[in-house]
Amino acid sequence: MLQNALRYQIKFRYVLMDSWFASKENFEYILKKNKHFIAAIKANRLFALNLKEKYDGNFRRIDDLGLKDNQSIKGYLKGFDKEVLLVCRIFTNKDGSIGRLYLVPSDTSLSSDHIITIYQKRWKVEECHKSLKSDAAIAKSPTKTIATQISHIVMSMIAVFKLECLEIKHSLNHFALKAKILIKANMDAMSELKKLRYG
């Protein structure tokens, strides 16, 4: 995907990724292309606070550093040579539990607030993927040929686009819109069934 974005000269500065893609190879590739990354990383990754600790092998687990909310520190991830920032974001989940998000940007000139603002843009992509899977059933295609599979994917994307337009117009999220449409369809079906039965 990154290669395509570069090939088509799409303008961007940061590559946002979750912890699944936060590898040394990906980091190095992004920097080699003169871009920056902001990656979520797992709490068990190892971090050195300065060059001396890095060269002495004194790495500590990120969750043992005791970072506060919105706090950022410079340092080195184990296995990655370049200096990065480490930012901690603490939040409360819907069930009341406390969650921690650790972000590592390669651009060490950014503030914590700026990093978090940029990284939040990634969430819209996640919402789109979720809607494609849940609302437009992109993965439930019974198609077998390339042409019909492409048609299904395109129609799923159009369906999500239309849901997005309806969301803006009616101030309802995709799931609420889908439920509303389903209820109306069921009511119309019941009405038609009554007509057939008694009419």
Helix fraction?
Answer: 40-55%
Going by helix content, strand content and strand pairing, the class is alpha+beta
Q: Mind summarizing the main beta sheet?
A: 7 strands, mixed
Order of helices and strands: HEHEEHEEEEHHHH
- Give the strand tally: 7
Question: Roughly what is the average pLDDT, rounded to an integer?
Answer: 90
Overall tally of domains = 2
Instruction: Quote the distance from N terminus to C terminus.
Output: 57 Å
Strand percentage: 15-25%
Instruction: List the total number of helices.
Output: 7
Radius of gyration: 23 Å
Shape: elongated
- Catalogue the unreliable spans: none
- In order across it, which strands form the biggest sheet? 1-2-7-6-5-3-4
State the main characteristics.
199 residues, alpha+beta
